[in-house]
Write a structure and sequence with these properties.
It is built from 23 helices and 2 strands. By secondary structure, the chain is mainly alpha-helical. This is J domain-containing protein.
């Protein structure tokens, strides 16, 4: 019997499909065996097998789940987010916002059309329902059991593992709000699947056996599936509680900053960044940036620059951190460093315009939008030109170190030393990398680069503080020397005035003596002692009077008549 070509092609196609399915099953089975060892090298090898399986069957749910969990185990959180980015809520919201009102109207029309299609065509024409002869009565309880039983068989295909795995990855990437939504959704789906599964069980499944056999003991040696799912549920619950705590503190800090309570906002953000439990890299960078804004609003420039440095160490493409640090350096008139940050920001804007997208993956958060970049680039170019003109005119040496240290002009030496000691203890370069110990990096390979950026920026800030201390201290020393000169001149002036007053008193007393008494004393024998006696103003401290007279050059001996000194 002749065989048609179509049947041969069908058999060949079927054979090819069966072969690929067997290969996929083999790859998945080998990957499972390697993952069970929990060794990094074996898990990495399992990823290679899973990639080969997904190349043959891209929609293999089991291969996708194993790959996502393997990436999560290897702490490759960015790869997990890139793999499952369609499930990130904030990314969906940003896409919906960027689509505009026109697309939203179109989507609403399509949605309304789909809702219309759900109705029977005859119901729209007549108000009364059309009786179908095939319609039969049925039991609602029986239908519920059948539906739940069918859903129980396919509850793994609903993909709640996506929400759990992606939620944990988002938590480590700093997307706390997304992580909370995803973990809550995955937990709800898992509990719903467990309820559907329990409906199909008989009452005997919920009771313990009265007689325990050796088979039960041997089966208890290996933990059942429910025990592992229970431990996973507990881990998810603990992670959710920690995420909610961080979100509450961040919300309270932002609310305090919006209300003008900057010290309260700084206190809340400090609880987050200095907490005992480490936080994710992206979330800490965001909190450091918010605290830098609070420091800037409260006038603490050095602390604000330090937090900007930490933000840029964790996220070198943070546009807000570069803008804030450049504004702070311009405020204290440190124009060369300000120009350096603005040039860096200009390069970042140019790369965004070249790539036609914001830096980083699509799920990364930014405080600007792509359509705002051209206008910002034009304004930034003009600002750089103005600053270069100011530098060319010689404004580089007029740095306001008082504002940097946080002191007022005319401060004392003790105030300067106290402020300088606190700033040195807080911003010492040796302690610049201490915050990394409380940070969970998204990729461990970035540890060296983060430390290098933190050390370099902290060293520049420390040198700036040392220059400020020496400059302010020299100004204080000049003021103290000038004050000593003023005091010395004032003392000399006071001594001169006292001497002039003594001379005037002498002249007045000599003019008040009567002429007759003077002639009688000349003829008597006591006139010589009387003329030598000096009757001046009364003074208790004769040594002080003598020193004052010697300072003005009155070296002639003065006989003094001691009278009425018993008081």
């Amino acid at each position: 019997m002749a065989v048609s070509p179509s049947s041969i092609a069908t058999d060949h196609k079927k054979h090819w499909w069966v072969t690929n399915r067997k290969l996929v099953d083999k790859y998945v089975k080998d990957a499972r065996f390697l993952i069970a060892t929990r060794e990094r090298n074996d898990v990495t090898s399992a990823l290679v097998l899973l990639d080969a399986a997904l190349a043959l069957s891209p929609r293999s749910e089991l291969a996708l789940e194993l790959k996502a969990r393997s990436l999560l185990y290897l702490r490759r959180f960015r790869d997990v987010a890139d793999m499952l980015q369609d499930y990130i809520p904030s990314l969906k919201m940003s896409i919906d916002e960027s689509s505009g009102s026109v697309s939203s109207d179109i989507s609403s029309q399509q949605l309304s059309r789909e809702q219309v299609k759900l109705l029977h065509s005859d119901n729209s024409s007549s108000g009364s329902p059309v009786h179908d002869p095939s319609f039969k009565c049925f039991s609602i309880s029986g239908l519920k059991k059948k539906v739940m039983a069918g859903l129980c068989k396919n509850y793994d295909k609903e993909g709640q593992w996506r929400y759990l795995v992606l939620g944990q990855a988002c938590c480590h990437l700093g997307l706390m709000e997304d992580a909370m939504v995803l973990l809550q959704t995955g937990k709800r789906l898992a509990s719903a699947a467990f309820r559907r599964e329990s409906i199909c069980w008989s009452d005997d499944n919920f009771t313990l056996p009265v007689i325990i056999t050796t088979q039960d003991i041997s089966s208890a040696a290996t933990p059942p599936r429910n025990v592992s799912s229970l431990s996973q549920t507990e881990n998810i619950s603990h992670l959710l509680s920690h995420i909610k705590l961080l979100i509450r503190r961040k919300t309270a800090a932002i609310a305090a900053s919006d209300a003008g309570l900057y010290s309260e906002s700084i206190r809340h953000f400090s609880k987050i960044v200095d907490g005992r439990r480490p936080a994710s890299q992206g979330f800490l960078a965001e909190c450091y940036m918010h605290r830098a804004s609070a420091y800037k609003a409260s006038g603490r420039i050095a602390e604000s620059i330090s937090d900007c440095n930490k933000t840029l160490a964790l996220d070198p493409t943070s546009i807000q951190a570069l803008e804030t640090r450049a504004e702070l350096l311009e405020t204290i008139r440190c124009l060369p460093d300000c120009l350096h940050d603005l040039e860096h920001l200009k390069l970042l804007y140019n790369s965004i315009m070249r790539d036609r997208k914001l830096p980083g993956p699509p799920w990364k958060r930014h405080n600007v939008r792509y359509r705002e970049i051209p206008g910002k680039l034009c304004a930034l170019t003009a600002k750089i030109q103005r600053l270069k003109q100011r530098v060319a005119s010689g404004e580089t040496g007029n740095v306001d170190y008082y504002a940097l240290i946080g002191l007022k002009r005319g401060c004392s030496r003790s105030e300067l030393e106290r402020a300088h000691l606190l700033l040195c203890l807080r911003h010492k370069p040796d302690k610049a990398t201490g915050f990394i110990d409380r940070c969970e990096l998204a990729d461990e390979r970035d540890l060296d680069s983060v430390k290098d950026r933190a050390k370099m920026s902290a060293l520049l800030l420390y040198r700036l503080l040392q220059k400020g201390y020496s400059s302010v201290m020299s100004a204080i020393m000049d003021e103290e020397a000038a004050e000593k000169q003023r005091k010395k001149a004032a003392a000399a002036t006071a001594a001169l005035q006292a001497a002039i007053q003594v001379q005037q008193t002498q002249c007045c007393n000599s003019k008040l003596e009567p002429e007759t008494g003077f002639n009688d004393r000349v003829n008597s024998g006591e006139n010589k002692a009387a003329t030598n006696a000096f009757q001046g103003v009364f003074c208790r401290d004769l040594a002080a009077v003598g020193s004052l007279l010697s300072q003005v050059g009155f070296n002639r001996p003065i006989p003094v008549k001691y009278e009425a000194l018993s008081c």
